[in-house]
Fold this sequence. Notes:
It is built from three helices and two strands, in the order H-E-H-E-H.
Amino acid sequence: MEGFVVFDYAPEFPSARAELSQWLSEGKIQRKETIIKGGLREAEQALCDLYKGVNTGKLLLEMAVPEKAVEKSSL
């Protein structure tokens, strides 16, 4: 097995990003992610889950603005 330093390939990042984006949109590759809903109420449990390895791919904590706050800010 041989490793490599990712920064050695920095000049190729833009073309790689474009190619990966195209593959995602075409369905050739798929993202793997676990999204925890519930905002900060669930942050502690999400962190525990992260260290337990219960997630698939990225573990994301969804932070949403409550609807009432949005209504007040538009007044």
